[in-house]
Amino acid sequence: MTPERSMLDAALNYTSKGWRVFPCRANKKPLIQNGFKAASTDPEQVRKWWMQWPTASVGCPMGAEHGAWVLDVDLPKGPESLAALEAEHGPLPATVEQHTGGSGRQLFFKWIKGREVRNSANKLAPSLDVRGEGGYVILPPSGHLSGGTYSWVSSGAALAEAPAWLLDMVAPLSTAAQAAKTAPLTAGGTTPYGRKALEAEAAIVMNTAQGGRNQALNESAFALGQLVAGGELDRQKAEATLLDAALAVGLTEIEARKTIASGMAAGEREPRRAPEQLASAAKPVARAIQSTPSIDEEWTPEATKWPTLPLAAMPGFVGDFIQLATRNSEADPAAVLATFLTRFGVELISPHILIGETTHKARLFAAICGASSKARKGTSAAPVKKLFTFGESSGHIPAQYSPGPLSTGEGLVYAVRDELKEWKVDRQNPTGAWVVTDPGVSDKRLFVLDEELAAALNCTNRQGNTLSTAMRCFWDNGNLNPLTKSNRTRTTGAHLALVTHITVAELTSLLDAVQSLNGFANRFLWVYAKRRGVVPFPEPMPDVELDAIRRELLTLLHKGKHTERVLMDSTAREMWKYVYLDLSQEHPGLAGCVINRGEAQVMRLALIYTLLAGQNIITAEHLGAALAFWQYCHESAMLIFGGRETDPMVDKVLAMLRGGAKSLTEIHKALGNHDTKRVKDVLGELSNSGRVRFTSEQTGGRSKTVFSLCENRELCELCPPTHRLPTLIRIIRLIRKV
């Protein structure tokens, strides 16, 4: 067995036991974004990681979720320090143990609920480190920088609990928590003091004004969590009472449960008991607000949820090429896949599928968006360009190719223009005749690989620029006939496909002019690209393997040339009915504008996957591959555009209302006394869409209208992408099982 195979098998073995793993360098540094926080038990994800980094070490997070923490006995003084502690307090029990590659020992102990073991170095004793919550270890058979390897000493042993003396050293209980061990409780686990405290906190939530209720709920949950940890209050009773109060004032159940759980967990880390003078009398309690951390103090940045490309999107021949193209490269597989599918589709002008009266051809537009120039967007195009380089003996004439840049609609039309005739009367034709003044372009296939979408978006802002209109027409049906007096160049049946690149920073800077983007953004598949690793010396694709892929590609292109209308088999039709509702639903915000052609995009992708399988009938497998890639594009669009509105003023109003309810006058002033009609139009739009509600309040004189967020709609818009595609994800899982 090769070392590469050994590492993959080891990682998969750990996931089968429920251990989350992630790839690391030999120096123990993570190879993936977000490090140990992104560790996974998903075998497909693990295979992708170790296919990308075959010799990577296996990292494993410690802490409550994993159910274990580690005592790291390091050289040079670790064995001596541990021996001194055991001589004083008693020996450690037999437990799971491994030897590190540097000749140290790591002892695994069971995680005890309520005892939070944190990372430490040399705090316990010289060369004795602790790996707990927020830390991780390297597992066998990973290599060590010293040249050694990690190995199990007793992997079959049971995971033991650390003795009390060691646990008290690594996770000491606070004074309040120690006292809670012997605290007297009334029936049901709640003291009179705790009961009064619960009543008081529920009243606080019930009487908080709209706009501050969620924060009040968090603070109350924190205060009661302290009493739960102090032995004064039963947790289930506290949670149920707070939930009833939250629902009574209009908070949603999902939001309330999340806030209560977060506040309780934070409070339990700081146990609190009733003051002695209050405990006996059970007087009503008013919590010490100063002991409650504010929301801002507790806030931590949320890790970005990067889209994950499902393996179902790379079946058979497609997967063979993507694997070859990215084997020794920094190119993102998703970006290579988008470029490949688009380039393949433009080669075949005849295949199509009919949906009602609409004809969809194998025509795609893809926008590859990276966090920066380091995302290797351009690198993804190189292997595709090389694959589609054919010799004269191949028998295939490829589509026209243009590197751009995109500038005007007229420029695109000219590249695939029809024959132009004029009626002329001259000596040769005294009575008049049609004369060809421009033979036009006979091959209407055109592939555009434009590296600068930002420049094209800037062009669309110019008065009279027709690029946006042309892009829509080329994607829809390939026909464009400008009704202008000076320009009579037109095109019919053009088959144009486009791949273009942009960075997130460039896109963000252009969002103030979103009208230009709205014009054709939903014709694009938005693909988020990341640098997949550091490869100082990328290697070209081996000629032997590339030639074999190219021969198969030519065979598929030859079959595709003779294919016209493509149908769906019965299983695919049933599958399509199942996912159609999700694909065709409306989505709010700018992200909604971008993904609102999901059903058409999936159908075109399914057509291309069918042709790449050498078939003329769309099956469930082809549709499943299309849905898998659309899932990636959907998640990319949510990551790139999520949280933004098509109208910048809508963004400003929503941000303002997140701070609490506001009257029309307050909103108007906060917007710099903007045009009143414009403000009213925005508020009317938000109200009609159910995202903002309004109430009339009586003042001394005339009543005033007060606007506030509809909390359930805000929660829906903040849901991560995976919550927005429930049916698609079920389909992907079904395909994976098959």
Explain what the structure shows.
The chain has 738 residues and is α+β, with helices and mostly antiparallel strands. The chain has four domains: 3-170, no CATH class; 177-298, no CATH class; 317-531 and 563-641, Rossmann fold, CATH 3.40.50; 649-718, Arc Repressor Mutant, subunit A, CATH 1.10.10.10. 43% of the residues lie in helices and 14% in strands. It is built from 29 helices and 23 strands. The strands form seven sheets. A six-stranded antiparallel sheet has the order 6-7-3-5-4-9. The chain has a five-stranded parallel sheet with strand order 13-16-17-12-18. Strand 14 (420-424) and strand 15 (433-438) form a beta hairpin. Helix 8 (235-248) runs antiparallel to helix 9. The radius of gyration is 32 Å and the shape is flat. Mean pLDDT is 79; it is low at 179-188, 276-303, 512-516, 712-730 and 732-738.
Write the SSE topology.
Elements: H1 3-16, E1 22-24, H2 43-52, E2 57-61, E3 68-73, H3 78-89, E4 97-99, E5 105-110, E6 120-125, E7 128-131, E8 136-139, E9 151-152, H4 164-170, H5 175-180, H6 192-206, H7 213-229, H8 235-248, H9 253-268, H10 276-279, H11 295-298, H12 316-326, H13 333-347, E10 352-355, E11 358-361, E12 365-370, H14 382-387, E13 400-402, H15 409-415, E14 420-424, E15 433-438, E16 445-450, H16 453-460, H17 467-476, E17 495-503, H18 504-509, H19 514-518, E18 524-529, H20 543-561, E19 567-568, H21 570-584, H22 589-595, H23 598-612, E20 617-618, H24 620-641, H25 648-657, E21 662-663, H26 664-670, H27 676-688, E22 692-697, E23 704-709, H28 711-718, H29 726-737
Parallel strand pairs: 12-17, 12-18, 13-16, 16-17, 19-20
Antiparallel strand pairs: 1-2, 2-8, 3-5, 3-7, 4-5, 4-9, 6-7, 10-11, 14-15, 21-23, 22-23
Domain DNA primase/polymerase bifunctional N-terminal: 11-166
Pfam family, one: Prim-Pol
Protein name: DNA primase/polymerase bifunctional N-terminal domain-containing protein
